[in-house]
Task: inverse folding
């Protein structure tokens, strides 16, 4: 089925009205702590599930933690998908929905980063089957009712928002993140930071979002360097996963801005991994918005113990050893216009606090990041 036929664009995050705000609280149980993955079976039973599909990112599939999930699910587990690909391509969604329907699946358990959780969400959205999410990176997708999906033929990544996309249970287990390699740790951690920063200056954020997002900013500033320095530091991993949860919660109740619109276009058009796109674009998007969100950025700076928020974020990203230029991830200068044009169709760009009316404004950010 063509992507456009089943993508229903409902409001994302909070929506401003003349007199107040509007936001969504889909029913979701969050369990956080070491060993949480062992709860998969109990939670599946509580949801009345008998036939479970386990979507598991390939780098996790042979680890003891994936075995814990399978053991916990026991006889309920009927089929597993490990062909998880970045940016949730639409052809993979079609094939996975077919598997779920053919096997009579009544619950999806998705373990992995945003790509695995996104595939689980896509199956849930298409079939109405509930999901349990087991996040293993800091991308935060598990906390939202938003799905990013890529039309493989057109190379277009678009988001759709709907309550059926939201996982019913999220199992946050810091022990699962211990094996996350340094670059994935750093880049998905910066993705979490970007959720928090764009939530702080979002014009559509629900009122509780600011403090939640600033708490996430402060915690990421402290915990992420520790996780990258020593991936086996379980205390640091716990602090970072808790911060990613807070950032994901903020993301769920605030519209994102130009930063996210550009990252989706970089992923959809050129396959740039989402975390790396975040690491490259974030300080430039913050600088671009600075003249209209000065007080908000001052609060981000204070949370990081710094004077300038964009400079502090740029320094943090540099210290983690991540790429900081689009040319380093294969983008040619001519590609920037393609990204800008595509991003003009993004709801995140439309919701940016500084109005964006022409691709030239996006090119300004992209050139500074190139
Ligand atoms: P990813 O899921 O593609 O994972 C990156 C790599 O890390 C993969 O190779 C994966 O196999 C590996 N990996 C994951 N966990 C591991 C672990 N514990 N140990 C070892 N290897 C591990 O990347 P991501 O950055 O987590 O997710 C990006 C995707 O999530 C993008 O499509 C993005 O748009 C989406 N996303 C969606 C939302 C939302 O609200 N809908 C929010 C954030 C991100």
Result:
């Amino acid at each position: 089925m063509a992507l456009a036929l089943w993508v229903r664009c409902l409001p994302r995050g909070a929506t401003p009205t003349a007199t107040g705000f509007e936001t969504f609280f889909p029913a979701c149980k969050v369990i956080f702590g070491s060993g949480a993955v062992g709860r998969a079976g109990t939670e599946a039973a509580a949801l009345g599930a008998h036939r479970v599909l386990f979507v598991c990112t390939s780098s996790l599939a042979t680890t003891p933690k994936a075995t814990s999930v399978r053991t916990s699910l026991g006889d309920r587990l009927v089929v597993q998908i490990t062909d998880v690909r970045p940016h949730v391509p639409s052809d993979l969604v079609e094939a996975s929905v077919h598997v779920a329907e053919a096997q009579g699946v009544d619950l999806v358990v998705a373990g992995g980063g945003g790509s695995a959780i996104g595939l689980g969400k896509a199956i849930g959205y298409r079939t109405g089957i509930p999901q349990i999410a087991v996040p293993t990176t800091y991308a935060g997708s598990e906390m939202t009712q938003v799905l990013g999906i890529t039309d493989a033929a057109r190379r277009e990544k678009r988001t759709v928002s709907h309550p059926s996309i939201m996982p019913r249970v999220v199992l946050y287990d810091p022990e699962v993140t211990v094996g996350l390699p340094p670059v994935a740790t750093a880049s998905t951690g910066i993705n979490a930071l970007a959720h928090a920063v764009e939530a702080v200056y979002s014009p559509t954020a629900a009122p509780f979002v600011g403090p939640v997002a600033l708490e996430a900013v402060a915690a990421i500033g402290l915990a992420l360097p520790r996780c990258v320095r020593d991936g086996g530091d379980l205390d640091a991993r716990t602090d970072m996963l808790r911060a990613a949860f807070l950032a994901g919660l903020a993301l769920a109740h605030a519209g994102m801005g130009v930063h996210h619109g550009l990252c989706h276009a970089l992923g959809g058009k050129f396959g740039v991994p989402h975390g790396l796109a975040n690491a490259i674009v974030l300080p430039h998007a913050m600088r671009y918005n600075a003249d209209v969100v000065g007080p908000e950025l001052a609060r981000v700076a204070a949370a990081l113990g710094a004077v300038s928020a964009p400079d502090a974020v740029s320094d943090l990203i540099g210290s983690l050893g991540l790429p900081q230029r689009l040319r380093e991830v294969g983008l040619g200068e001519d590609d920037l216009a393609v990204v800008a044009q595509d991003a003009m169709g993004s709801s995140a760009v439309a919701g940016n606090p500084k109005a964006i009316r022409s691709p030239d404004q996006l090119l300004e950010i992209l050139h500074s990041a190139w």
